[in-house]
Amino acid sequence: MNVLAITPARGGSKGVPRKNIKLLNGKPLLQYTVEAVQKSKFITKYIINTEDEEIREVAHALGVQTQGRPEDFWYDNTFQEVDRLLQWCIQDLEQKGEKIDIVVLLYATAPLRKAETITQCIDLVLNQGYDSALTLKEDRSYIWKRIDSTNSVEPVNYDPKKRGPNQLEEWNQWVENKAVYVMKRDLLMKTGCRLGGKIGYVPMGKMESIDIDMPEDFILAETIMKMKNG
Fold first, then answer.
1. Facing residues of 28 across strands?
2. For the whole model, what pTM was predicted?
3. Which pLDDT band holds residue 79 (cuts at 50, 70, 90)?
4. Considering only CA atoms, which of 43, 41, 127, 49 is closest in space to residue 91?
5. CATH number of 3-137+175-229, picked from 3.30.1330.10, 2.70.70.10, 3.30.930.10, 3.90.550.10
6. Burial letters 33-67, b for 16+ CB under 10 A, else e
7. Residues whose CB is less than 8 angstroms from the CB of residue 127 and which lie 6 or more positions away in sequence, other chains included
8. CA 55, CA 51: separation in Å to the nearest integer?
9. CA 55 and chain centroid, separation
């Protein structure tokens, strides 16, 4: 089976300028994903998709092939943009003779993601009968939503009159941490969505689930890395 892993890496990130190549604990953020891919089983081809020349240079220095993208995908401002980008990437590679069976989406913003986790997610689709898979982290939050244009709110996932010990609540849920997505090529191309069919998941802990989006996320990730190395 041909397993293609893709890291989309725009140059114009919003929350943290140039975050994909910003140094985190002495390495470009992108490098942590590259190193995880290099240690993971099953991946037969890996590319970094970018419109940015400096990101391309960093990727090539790390020994990774890059792929450009049309200007329509430069700005991250439309619905399902990454899923549509993945479709475009596959079409572009297949026109050049590549054969792809499974697609793995790995954002560069999950520097604490382990290679083993990537392998486990791929295994669900490759060997265990799932059509797609993703990583999740447990979340025990009491969630509320606003119900009108004022400050009126109502609970979403619990009854305040039946509040129990947090560990005993039956509604404890999981949330996406944007670390790993795996999908069958045909599912993505037919539906335009990375998740569908029979969906499996691999759990990840809170610390390794950090998603780099804001400056404070860099500080938190770097602090955890230094603690582990200390």
1. 23
2. 0.91
3. low
4. 49
5. 3.90.550.10
6. bbebbeebebbeebbbbbbbeebbebbeebebebb
7. none
8. 8
9. 18
